[in-house]
Write a structure and sequence with these properties.
The protein is α+β, with helices and mostly antiparallel strands. It has a single domain, classed as Roll (Pnp Oxidase, Chain A). The protein is built from four helices and nine strands, in the order αββββαββααβββ. Strands 1, 2, 3, 4, 5, 6, 7, 8 and 9 form a nine-stranded antiparallel sheet that branches. A hairpin with a 4-residue loop joins strand 3 and strand 4. The model has no long low-confidence stretch (mean pLDDT about 95). Bound molecules: flavin mononucleotide. Flavin mononucleotide (FMN) binds next to strand 2, strand 4 and helix 2.
């Protein structure tokens, strides 16, 4: 069990929403090559490592991957409807591709691939995301291998450096900022 202060809150929210599939969707904002914001929904795939990284899976042909290569900073925003809590994670993205030299990361990528549903895995064999609409046949590929990820499949890790937690339940509402330097520190701020 991690002793990171915000993680306890997040695990509690995840547990409370465990039967709500949409509770694992959050928004991940990156910075484009033109220094503009770019935002999209992604699925939370769990935690990785002792830095409490958030795991996502992405296609290395997608636009966000080109953005991350230039600007690794990102912000994720996650709202839990039943407990009325918002978490904002500001941090660095680490893209784990097929050729990653770190064995643990390589294995984590492979495990994330194996944990996907068949239909989610199949999407990585579809035609290039963001390109003009392809023929129907390009969306009916043979099922990819279950054990070995396709080359374009990536694990994406968000390493939080700051977490802004807002709980709307109170009146006034409660807000804490968690910051990572040597370890984590927190400060209660006005909502
Ligand atoms: C509910 C929902 C969940 C999604 N989950 C993911 C995901 O886990 N990974 C991903 O790359 N795209 C996911 N997408 C698609 C992205 O939001 C986005 O459309 C796509 O990745 C292309 O983004 P980009 O052009 O900024 O790279 C999801 C979309 C929705 C609506």
């Amino acid at each position: 069990m991690s002793d990171t202060p915000w993680r306890f809150l997040l695990e509690k929210s995840l547990n409370y929403h465990r039967n709500i599939r949409e509770a694992r969707y959050l928004q991940l904002a990156t910075v484009t090559q033109e220094n503009r914001p770019a935002n999209r929904s992604v699925v939370f795939r769990g935690f990785y490592g002792d830095k409490d990284c958030l795991k996502f899976v992405v296609d290395n042909r997608s636009e966000k991957v080109r953005q991350i290569a230039v600007h690794p900073w990102a912000e994720a925003c996650w709202y839990f409807t039943q407990t009325r809590e918002q978490f904002r994670f500001s941090g660095l993205l680490n893209l784990v591709q097929a050729d990653n030299a770190d064995l643990a990361l390589k294995q984590a990528r492979q495990a994330s691939w194996q944990e996907l549903s068949n239909s989610a895995r199949l999407q990585f064999a579809w035609a290039d995301p963001g390109k003009p609409r392809a023929e129907d046949a390009d969306f009916a590929p043979p099922p990819p291998p279950v054990l070995e990820p396709l080359a374009n499949f990536c694990l994406l890790l968000l390493e939080p450096m700051e977490v802004d937690y807002l709980n709307l339940m109170g009146n006034p509402q409660n807000r804490y900022i968690y910051s990572r330097n040597d370890g984590w520190s927190s400060i209660e701020v006005n909502p």
